[in-house]
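Hi R.,

As promised, here are both runs. First protein below:
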Amino acid sequence: MRVIRAEDPQAVAEAARVLRGGGLVVFPTDTVYGVGAAVDRPDAVARLYVAKGRPLDRPIPVLIADLEQLERLAREVSEAVRRLAQRFWPGALTIVVPAQPWLPVEVVRETGAVGLRMPDHPVALAIIRVAGGAVATTSANRSGEREACTVEEAIAALGDAVDLYVDGGRTPGGVPSTVVALEGGVVKILRRGALDPALIEAALRA
């Protein structure tokens, strides 16, 4: 287990190196600290479940660095999904979409879907971009316990199960993202979080 300050000139490159090598990295986002694995490394994503004690039937969301990743990761992108992404990304909205078949089962589980979000945090975006544009990421805490808003809280929860911790100070949000799916153009709220669902519905009506 290593800790590196986010302002260290080597932090982003080191985090990307660990991710590409199949390691786990904790880093700050605009909501809470996340723990990430390379999206194309099933072995690394499997380690996320072990590190968190996460139930195996719960998929792992994916954080992305740009809108182009939407096409790479989603099997289909409806006009409503595109509108929400353009309106609320980067930000605290996770959108569940049909997954591309190349995504490993460790990410999608039995759902055939993947939750995507572009975080509004420069350190997170830089790490994700250098690591290939998409990183399978879930909150950096033991499953069912409180989310980590500092690197110290993440270390207390996950310890040596993580290879590298990037310390970016206290996260600005402190509340996980709102998670939605679109069914027939209608928003279904899967998790209430930092983004008010009323804003999401208003964006689709606009």
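And here is the second one, sequence first, then its structure tokens:
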Amino acid sequence: MGSDRFYPEEAPVRRVRISPFWIDETPITNRQFKAFVDATGYRTEAEIPPDPKLYPGMPAEMARAGSLVFAPTEEGGSLADHHYWWRFEFGAFWRQPFGPGDSIEERMDHPVVHVSYKDAAAYAKWAGKSLPTEAEWEFAARGGHEQRDYQWGEELAPAGVMLANYWQGTFPTQNTLEDGFFGTSPARQFPPNDFGLYDMIGNVWEWTKDWYGQPRLPIKRGQACCTIDNPRGALKHESIDRRDPANTLPRRVVKGGSHLCAENYCRRYRPAARQGQAVDSSTTHIGFRCVVRESR
């Protein structure tokens, strides 16, 4: 598990052992999520106006339901400033991903988006399943192979073939669309890995149940050691991004990268890649899939 070749939060490489589990072949689709909503009447966090008490300093006019939508400016801008490509869109939620007037009617087999961690966990509970741990997710994504950079090997696009939905070109202003998609793509559009799982790489980031932080490793004589059984993430308070004093929300691990990952910006379309996401976040590039663990 992990990698020493890309981003520091992926290190160190360590050996883990995972108890048996089943995992969904694809991310949960709009069709599947609609069945959940139709059966339960569930409302996602993006459909509920935020409570100003939970967001000190939030302008009063922002206390309206909505979600983050990918909307790059023409001039581009610094890759350090996400405001050049993210916009909070009032009325954006899973049924209308880009806001009022949009529809999922032609995208029923695309991954559902604009789901927060709470939304994903609610679906999983209704389905009699759970969200995966980071280790379970990474094990599944590797498809039975160890330490490949990508789930299919060491080349991102072997012989120029696109094997996942990610950004080709210069993010965020130029997408050459060599994979055929600007946004999400239908489930099973690209080849599965060797476990028969689709879209473990690219398309949408996927929630896991672990809190984000540095890997917790067993120590022996001052050095990391040993095989780790069913590892878990950081403690909840460790997951808060201390670089931003205004951000006090804990973060969960998301995995797999998305259609917005690019060679010049976010090379996280790999099994080892990981990112911390605030638990209330919902966007046009985050989804999820579920697991069922074998009982003992």
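A quick note on the second one: Residues 1-296 form a domain with the paralog of FGE (formylglycine-generating enzyme) fold (CATH 3.90.1580.10). Let me know what you think.

Best,
J.
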